[in-house]
Amino acid sequence: MEKNIERVRCHECAVLEGQYHAPGCDAEICPFCGEQLNFGCQCDPKPGPGQRIPFIDYPIPCVKCGGLPWERIPDDELREISHRSRSRAEFEEQLIKATKKSTWRMVADKEWRTYVEPNRRRSIICPSCYRQIKEWIEQEGTRMDPEIRSYRDPEKGPLMNG
């Protein structure tokens, strides 16, 4: 059975999924480098006819349940994040930061590091999943040392054992 997925519009130019972005849309992605065509893309020449990528929205869900935690971030803030971001990776990073500032993550960094394993600390976890994770860890008495670092954490350097 096929899933019936609702088509969404580009938050910048309002085209529907499957359509090409409007000319000059800030959200259009370069097919060569994967950066935003009008911001981070340094390709020369720019993509020509037949080389553009149609708009498809790929949301970043909660890593635990698959929910979309930024649904409560106001549209104007999402547009601002999009304008500031020069690449898809930067957009995702800024979205994660905005999510952490919003009502979706209202815990101190030390608490976050106590309950979320190192390789998931830069991920999005919705409030329901976070509360459940915290409850399970509290119930079992298995808190983590908040100073344990992930090998993926570029701000802290490589994982140190011992």
Structural notes for this entry:
This protein has 162 residues and is an all-alpha fold. It has 2 domains: 8-58, no CATH class; 69-140, no CATH class. It contains 4 helices and no strands. The chain has helices spanning 75-84, 88-101, 109-115, 127-140. The protein is elongated. 16% of the residues are buried. Mean pLDDT is 76; it is low at 156-162.
Describe the structure using short key phrases.
single chain; 162 residues; mainly alpha; 2 domains; 4 helices; elongated; disordered C terminus
Question: Helix coverage percent of residues?
Answer: 25-40%
Assign the structural class, choosing from mainly alpha, mainly beta, alpha/beta, alpha+beta, or little secondary structure: mainly alpha
**What is the number of beta strands?**
0
Overall 3D form: elongated
Q: What radius of gyration results from the CA coordinates?
A: 19 Å
Strand content: under 5%
What separation lies between the terminal Cα atoms?
A: 51 Å
Low-confidence stretches: 156-162
Report the order of strands and helices: HHHH
Count the DSSP helices: 4
**Count of domain modules:** 2
Q: How does the major sheet shape up?
A: none
Mean pLDDT metric: 76
